[in-house]
Input
Amino acid sequence: MSRLIRLACLVLLLALVPAPVAASTWTWPLDETGIARPFDAPRHRYAPGHRGVDLPGRPGQTVRAVAAGRVTFAGRVAGVGTITVDHGSERSTYQPVEASVEVGEVVVAGQPLGRLRSGHGVCPAACLHLGRRRGEDHLDPADLLPGGGRYVLISPEGPPPAPPSESPGRLPVPGPVTSPFGMRVHPITGERRLHDGVDVGAPCGTPVRAVAAGTVTWAGARGPYGLQIEVRHGDHAVSVSHLSSITVRVGDRVVPGDLLGRVGSTGMSTGCHVHVMRLEDGRPVDPLGAR
Output
């Protein structure tokens, strides 16, 4: 009889714990607001894409729950600290985060979940990868973040506001720099010559995006560079080479986040990557050292 009583009490306690309910809006998980890399839906479950948004932050910064829910995972996925919070019909995910919560813990919007770690994304210091899932489908978290949508309403009166400025050192595709700017031995010809940009390793098919507002001045094949896109940003130009496909044309205006093409290995290339080159007064300079 005592066992039945204890079981009944446990069922009653569980019933008193509020079930997660999907929120219509989310709060920002970091103190700062802004998206360094937007959501890019994959064409199918295993296709390339960016299954969430990257938010710029600082290593050690507090990461907070975007909405009320229950922690269903707090551990590591492929060595990366990951937290999942169930909000009913949807779930939010956070990487790379050192968790301060435990599985089963009920949280409210804005409650600390852990500390942000470095080592992800294109942000200068650290990026929080925020994901949103409904079942097996990946959704755009920006649709629920205040002011985080794809469109911003501006006043119809007066001149339009200036586009966002370029972030120094930001790259058009996430990934490690596999070959920096400077003198090197060419991996194909064996000649020692100037490497006039930086190589960023990424899987073929990964989206390549504009990092600043500008005008497309070249879009096509260019000898050893393979498929190349060049964008003029006022007093300098940035090109991306060895692409597998191009989605813009000469004369197109682009803004940060616009899709330019996809990673490939065209031209004189030894594998899937993007060659990023910056020209000032017609001369190449280090894209990562430019200001």
